[in-house]
């Protein structure tokens, strides 16, 4: 019998090595390698013979595309509009969602709120329930959180984290929603210690298969590594249908989708953590602009898009005489390279003297938005800070700036303009082509349009 080759796998990122390493070269985690022995396969023998040279093994049944029926995936509302937006319209029957985030950020809180709302709707319709698999907390701890959040539905809970038993519960009860908190606590018989690479991978695959067969919408909570990615083998993210991350930005919690087989990836939901749980922020533009100073040079309201969601954010700039031989350029929340390009355009095309000045550019609120449409706002904010003139209060801007000083169009320009109009900004400084707006063709024209 041939000796099986042993691999060593990093339990933080899934990196594989032929020998154990003290530190993972991929994620830099220490002492994270575990031994993984592949199972023997009788069908993979080196000797080829018989039918087709593959030991007499026959291929499976083929189905032509024309013979496959069309079916719309049924969705169930989570009861939280912001979450439905991120998921592309709601929870999909048989779909598996992986949610990641730092410890204590509110993943369990959000999912307990969702469980309550889904269970209430299921009880009204007279079918289905919600199964909550508690792998990290006792049932008494979950009851305390449920009392704090005002949960009134009678959820079905279990502390049994064996993947085979969870799959059997799905087959027996066919719940409308199953929440597994967390996937790192799920065990598969004969696959080593809980939380290992093989355990997480095979547990995810088994629960995904059970969700597809029973039509149960399933949500898996995943731990994250120190760099913010989901801990465990990368194949886990390929198995699930949707991957979302919950992150902290200032006083808000942002839920962002990075993969979605049933909707648009990159969607954004904004929440605020309160005593009664995570509360959706219906108007993020007003929330992010609530503390904006008025009549201050260097402050510009920019219409941007994060995913498919238009928002108004404040771009701030400050210019001061530098005490150092080389002037500093500090950028927070924006792409530093794009800001450098905008500063070069201002010096070359508008003869704005920036030599000897430290320039600080900040996207207020703590967000990080790699949107080229913020270029014009950066240009006007820096110009305003250098010349010491504040922009009028009713002006909002967006547009990409080219090396020739031209202002280029941006994606979703109409939705940006509509968001600015809803917020009460009457004057828009935008690229040409937008209905009802004259538009500016260059940064120089934009400066003249603002201070006309």
Strand order of the largest sheet: 8-7-9-10-6-11-12-13-14
From the alpha-carbon coordinates, what is the Rg to the nearest angstrom? 27 Å
Helix content: 25-40%
- Number of helical elements: 11
CATH architecture of the largest domain: 3-Layer(aba) Sandwich
Mean pLDDT: 88
The CATH topology annotation of the largest domain reads as Rossmann fold
Task: Based on Cα principal axes, name the global outline.
Answer: elongated
Q: How many runs of DSSP E, i.e. beta strands?
A: 22
Motif (RadA KNRFG motif): 259-263
Region (Disordered): 62-82
InterPro entries: AAA+_ATPase, DNA_repair_RadA, P-loop_NTPase, RecA_ATP-bd, Ribosomal_Su5_D2-typ_SF, Ribsml_uS5_D2-typ_fold_subgr, Rubredoxin_2
GO molecular function, one term: hydrolase activity
Can you walk me through this structure?
This protein has 3 domains: 1-37; 75-282, Rossmann fold (3-Layer(aba) Sandwich); 286-451, Ribosomal Protein S5, domain 2 (2-Layer Sandwich). Helix 4 runs parallel beside helix 5 and helix 8 (336-349) crosses helix 9. The longest helix is centred in the first third of the chain and has 19 residues, at 107-125. The chain starts with 6 loop residues before the first strand and ends with a helix. The strands form 5 sheets. It has a 9-stranded mixed beta sheet. 27% of the residues lie in helices and 24% in strands. The radius of gyration is 27 Å and the shape is elongated. Mean pLDDT is 88; it is low at 40-51. The protein has helices at residues 81-87, 107-125, 139-149, 163-173, 197-214, 235-239, 284-288, 336-349, 375-387, 413-422, 443-450; strands at 7-10, 16-17, 33-36, 75-76, 91-92, 96-101, 130-134, 156-158, 177-181, 217-222, 242-249, 252-260, 268-274, 277-280, 299-306, 309-321, 329-332, 357-363, 395-397, 400-401, 407-408, 427-429. It has 452 residues and is an alpha/beta fold. Belongs to the RecA family. RadA subfamily. Residues 358-452 are annotated as: Lon-protease-like. Residues 72-224 form the RecA family profile domain. Keywords: ATP-binding, DNA damage, DNA repair, DNA-binding, Hydrolase, Metal-binding, Nucleotide-binding, Stress response, Zinc, Zinc-finger. A motif (RadA KNRFG motif) lies at residues 259-263.
């Amino acid at each position: 019998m041939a000796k099986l080759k042993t691999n060593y796998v990093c339990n933080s990122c899934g990196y594989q090595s032929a020998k154990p390493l003290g530190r993972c070269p991929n994620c830099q985690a220490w002492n994270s390698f575990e031994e993984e022995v592949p199972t023997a396969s009788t069908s993979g023998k080196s000797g080829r013979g018989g039918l087709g040279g593959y030991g007499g093994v026959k291929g499976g049944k083929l189905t032509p595309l024309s013979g496959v029926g069309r079916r719309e995936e049924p969705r169930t509302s989570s009861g939280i509009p912001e979450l439905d937006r991120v998921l592309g319209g709601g929870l999909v029957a048989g779909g598996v969602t992986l949610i990641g985030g730092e410890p204590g950020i509110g993943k369990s809180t959000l999912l307990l709120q969702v469980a309550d709302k889904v269970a209430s709707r299921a009880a009204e319709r007279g079918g289905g329930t919600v199964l909550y698999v508690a792998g990290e907390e006792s049932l008494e701890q979950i009851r305390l959180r449920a009392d704090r959040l005002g949960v009134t539905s009678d959820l079905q809970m279990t502390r049994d984290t064996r993947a085979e038993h969870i799959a059997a519960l799905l087959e027996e009860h066919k719940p409308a929603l199953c929440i597994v908190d967390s996937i790192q606590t799920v065990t598969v018989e004969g696959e080593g210690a809980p939380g290992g690479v093989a355990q997480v991978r095979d547990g995810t695959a088994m629960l995904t298969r059970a969700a597809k067969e029973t039509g149960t919408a399933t949500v898996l909570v995943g731990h994250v590594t120190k760099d913010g990615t989901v801990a465990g083998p990368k194949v886990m993210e390929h198995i699930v249908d949707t991957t979302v991350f919950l992150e902290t930005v200032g006083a808000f919690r942002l839920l962002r989708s990075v993969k979605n087989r049933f909707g648009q990836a990159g969607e954004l939901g904004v929440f605020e953590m309160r005593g009664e749980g995570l509360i959706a922020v219906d108007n993020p533009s007003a929330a992010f602009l609530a503390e904006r100073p008025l009549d201050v040079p260097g402050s510009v309201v920019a219409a941007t898009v994060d995913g498919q969601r238009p928002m108004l954010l404040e771009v701030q700039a400050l210019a001061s005489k530098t005490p150092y031989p080389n002037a500093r350029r500090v950028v927070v929340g924006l792409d530093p390279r794009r800001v450098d390009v905008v500063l070069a355009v201002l010096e070359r095309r508008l003869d704005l003297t920036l030599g000897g000045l430290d320039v600080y550019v900040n996207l207020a609120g703590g967000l990080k938005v790699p949107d080229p449409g913020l270029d014009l706002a950066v240009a006007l904010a820096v110009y305003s800070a250098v010349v010491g003139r504040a922009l009028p209060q009713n002006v909002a801007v967006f547009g990409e700036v080219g090396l020739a000083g031209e202002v280029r169009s941006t994606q979703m320009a109409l939705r940006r303009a509509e968001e600015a109009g809803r917020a009460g900004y009457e004057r828009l400084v935008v690229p040409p082509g937008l209905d009802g707006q004259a538009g500016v063709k260059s940064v120089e024209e934009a400066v003249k349009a603002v201070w006309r």
